[in-house]
Amino acid sequence: KNVRYNLDFAKSQYEIAKDRYVKRKTYAQHLGMPNVKIAHNYEERGDKFNTVEGAWKFGVVVKIPIFDGMLNFSEQAKARASLRGSLIKSKIALENAEIDIRSHHTNWHVLDRYIKFLNKKRTRQQGIYDQTKTALKEKAATVAQLNATEVLTLETETELLQSKRLQFLDFLKLEMLTGEILYEEFFRTDFSQ
What we know:
The protein has helices spanning 7-30, 70-137, 143-177, 183-186; strands at residues 35-45, 53-63. By secondary structure, the chain is mainly alpha-helical. It is rod-shaped and about 115 Å long.
C-alpha cells in the first residue's frame, strides 16, 4: 500500500524502467522493425565565386533488416529473456520493500507488547523494592536484600529503556520506508524551520 512512497523502491523502479526501455529498444531492433534516422546539415555554396547562398539539407535514413540470418533469432531470444528478467527484478524489488515494511511493523508490535510486560514487571519490582526498604527500616531485612532488589529494579528499567529505543528506531524505519519521513529531515542542520 505505502510501498510506492518508499524512496529505495522508487529508485530501483526508475533504474528498472530505464533498463527496460533499452531492452525494449534492442528487442524491437531484432524483431526486424525499421530503424529511422533523420539527418540534416547546413552548407554554404554557390554557382559562382561571388554568389554564396546558405542552404539546409535534410534527409531521412531508414534501415530495415530484411534478412540477418540465424543471428537475428538468437538476438530476439536474448532480448526477450532480458525483458522477462527486468520484470522479475521489478517484482523482487516490490517484494523486498513489502517484506521490509512488514518486518519493521511486526517488530514494532512485538516490542510494544514486550514494553507493556516490562512496565508491569517494573511496577512489581518497584513494589518489592519499597517493601524491602520499609522492612529494612523495621530491621526485618538486610542491606544486601535491599541492594539486590534495587539491582533487579534497575535492570528492568534498563531493559525497558532499551526496548523503547528499539521500538522508536523501528518506528522511524517504518516511517522512512513508507515515505512519511524524508531522509533529509534527519540531516537538516537549520532547526529554525
